[in-house]
User: Fold this.
Amino acid sequence: MALGNQASKHLEESNVKTLAIHLLRTEEGVVGQWDEGHSCTPRSDEGDRNAVGDRACSVIDMNGTAPARPDLHDPVRSGLRPHRAALDMVRLGRQGLLLHPCDCFHKAYSLRLLVMVAHSPPPLATSSSSPTLNMMTPEGPPTAWSVEESAGACQSRGVSQSKWLFFLKTFGAALVVIYICVPFIIRLFPAILGKVVYLNMVKFPFFVDLKNPGELLNHTANFYLTSEEGVNIGVWHTVPASRGEEARGKDRRWFEDSLADDNPIIIYLHGNGGTRAMDHRVQLMKVLSKAGFHVLALDYRGFADSTGEPSEAGVTQDSVFLYEWVKARSHGNPVCLWGHSLGTGIATNAARKLQEKGNPADAVILEAPYTNIRDAGAYHPFGKIYHIYPGFEYFFLDTFALSNQVFPNDENVKKMTSPLMILHAEDDNVVPVSMGKELHEIAINSRHPRDVILILYPAMLGYKHKFIYKDPKLPEKLWAFLNNI
Assistant:
């Protein structure tokens, strides 16, 4: 039977068998063939030896059938129509390349083609139990492979590959199921979306003692305030660097009294996830302290070491309470609300509430602000995953209202009378810069333009969503803004 017919037959069968081509030379120029039990039957046809030249060959069906041996020096002329991969491997053999059998696993056609090539005349072991092919590798001395070892190695690799393939298929199927189910779960249980908004369960960085801020920030004190019954919020107070030496070893009372000096005060309202000890937050506090500002950074209820559970009304109340507490001790020094990311919505909520109480904030700074939480959700990296999902707005965006999460910056800036500064990086990959520009337009169309400042940072600076503190001129810009209020 010709090799081409053998290949076709193997391909058509549901249980694909293994076809192997062995290019070898025996000590006496004799070609052997092996059956399933690996018994060796020598063939010493002189015509065959002459036809092949200095290399003898045998085409072997590993299931026991030994077809007629063709002339592989010219397989087409001899009437042989082997699989193309087999011809390619024969050519490799002629070029003196040695391939390990398992490396010649041609999976695309479900046909295994095993090629072994010899360069010198190593002997062929004729043991009836396990014949050995002595192969000369290009890099070194001859290497002995037994047919039994080669078949076992390939079978072992095949089993391993099958297990990995099964695992990948199962894992992929699980991801698809999760992807499909998540929107339904969120719609049925809107409170889950609230957890995603705040991410307060992510208390990063780990292993930081929030009661001892001196490990991260100099001249900083930690204390707690009760914003309402049953809710205690953790706060860090960093004094201006100019008072750093004076602050060494001082108690909370000294820090509280220091708010009455002549330095402006910034209340920092951070974004979702993590604690007040996150690096980019700490770095901003360092910049502001060095610039001569008092900085008070709080963790809203449910965040870090603060008690309670977060909600839009709750985190807004925490911020309003801290502002009023600081303002009562500032002796007329300006107190500014600085919100970042999610904190921008908290800052404008607090400013609007303070205004309604007749005590508007002295100034508001929004870093990487959004128009409202619904719009922010559409552009958030998590939201982008589901943009192609049918009913994306219904399952996700409309559910924000069901979970009582609005944070309407766009509506708040229409009503606010406090001076406003907006900082936004053009390469922000979480909140698009277009939202910052839109808020600026809303603000200047609802008040005197002198009270609104927009500062955009080119993408080439790489400030993205949380690195605006790296702007070397940031302190200068802040002082220019606050000096005009």
